[in-house]
Design brief:
Blueprint lengths: L16 E2 L1 H18 L6 E2 L9 E2 L3 E5 L2 E7 L13 E8 L6 E5 L2 E2 L1 E2 L15 H18 L5 E6 L3 H5 L4 H4 L1 E2 L1 E2 L7 E2 L5 H16 L4 E5 L2 H11 L6 E2 L5 H10 L4 E7 H8 L14 H10 L3 H8 L4 H10 L4 H17 L5 E7 L5 E6 L7
Parallel strand pairs: 7-10, 8-12, 14-15, 14-16, 16-17
Antiparallel strand pairs: 1-13, 2-3, 4-5, 5-6, 6-10, 9-11, 17-18
Length: about 375
């Protein structure tokens, strides 16, 4: 959930932040430097994948029996990231000679339990790019100190398991804590990329497990409705939100036998108009198109009224008063638009529309497979 009271004014530039992967890399560099020299780096500068060289202030340091720990407080900038303010700690110790770099999930970092993610089952949920960043900084210091990179890197996030309850990790089969993420090292405030990335990983997991049916819902009410209707397991639910295009375009390349899209009347109306991002800031309901539906069945007075409707809900209520239910028409039109995006992918698609109480008000399926 985003606390709208904390969203900064759009009149000023939004401040960028740092990914958990960047913070883990900075912590690793400082702790490894201490292991080699006895001195923690503070501030600690790292090189990001695109060449940027940010400096991080050290928030925590500790020397123990055979290990050194350094911690960085994650600053997500002006992005409402659930890991903002979390401490990312790297515990560095020597590995067996010749064994190279070993990544471990410490307390608060998840472990992968399902196939389909970028790393195999049993591995720490430290994604490939952060691993590459940490490996590069370790090798850089090894070159400086003329030593071999036989190192154990254990990443720890205090309260990480609690933070993970606010993420989609459990559905992806990541248990025990958060993931260490990031492809550029930089968090761009209010970007869509992290959400869409999570959608893609959800499809990957479902594909790898051979699930026959997945569903994307626009919100919690529609998600519960589609899960109850089809008795779907949690990991068959894609956290789609407004990003229906992110689901359709990715699943087209990674087909699963059946896909259901479920949402409220207004959101599915936008899909029926061809919008692939259903957020209110990306596009509005086209009342002219709703009016045309009334016009097509000879209800000219209703068509005029629909042009001046306040909301999609209001438009449907006006139509119902005149004996026309727009929901089935919208569901079918949305189905056609979504099928256009899927092209010829071997996927059976259906569209469900629910009201605010989660009750099914329209259900469109492919021609020949029935519809209500």
């Amino acid at each position: 959930m985003v606390d709208i009271s904390n969203i900064p004014s759009q009149k000023s530039p939004l401040r960028k932040g740092w990914t958990t992967g960047a913070c883990a890399t900075a912590a690793t560099r400082s702790a490894f430097h201490a292991l080699l020299s006895g001195k923690f780096l503070d501030p600690v500068t790292i090189t990001l994948p695109k060449g940027e060289m940010p400096a991080f202030a050290l928030a925590y340091e500790k020397q123990g029996a055979g290990f050194f720990e350094a911690g960085i407080i994650k600053d997500a900038g002006d992005d409402p990231d659930v890991t903002h303010g979390a401490m990312i700690i790297a515990r560095i110790s020597h590995n067996i000679k010749g064994e190279g770099i070993l990544f471990k999930a410490g307390n608060g970092v998840g472990t992968i339990t399902r196939p389909g993610l970028p790393l195999p089952v049993g591995e720490a949920a430290i994604n490939p790019v952060p691993r590459a960043m940490m490996k590069a900084t370790i090798e850089n210091l090894c070159h400086k100190f003329q030593c071999d990179p036989d190192i154990i890197v254990e990443i720890i996030v205090p309260n990480g398991e609690k933070i993970a309850h606010k993420t989609w990790n459990s559905r992806l089969g990541i248990e025990g804590g958060i993931s260490i993420l990031g492809t550029t090292g930089i968090v761009h405030p209010f970007s869509c990329s992290a959400w869409i990335h999570s959608i893609h990983r959800g499809i990957d997991v479902a594909f790898a497990e051979g699930l026959p049916h997945v569903a994307g819902a626009t919100g919690s009410t529609s998600e519960k409705a589609v899960q109850d209707f089809y008795n779907l397991p949690d990991h068959a639910l894609l956290d789609m939100g407004d990003f229906v295009g992110g689901v359709l375009k990715y699943i087209r390349k990674n087909p699963i036998a059946k896909l259901t899209i479920c949402g409220g009347f207004a959101k599915i109306t936008k899909l029926s108009q061809g919008l692939m991002d259903l957020h209110s800031k990306r596009g509005e309901v086209d009342f002219e198109s709703l009016a045309q539906m009334a016009e097509n069945v000879g209800k000219r007075e209703l068509a005029k009224a629909l042009q001046n409707a306040n909301t999609a809900k209001h438009a449907r209520e006006l139509a119902l008063e005149e004996g026309l239910d727009l929901a089935p028409l919208i569901a079918q039109k949305a189905l056609n638009k979504a099928k256009d995006v899927l092209k010829n992918a071997p996927i059976t698609l259906d569209i469900m529309i629910v009201d605010r109480g989660g009750n099914l008000i329209a259900h469109a399926q492919e021609t020949g497979k029935g519809s209500v």
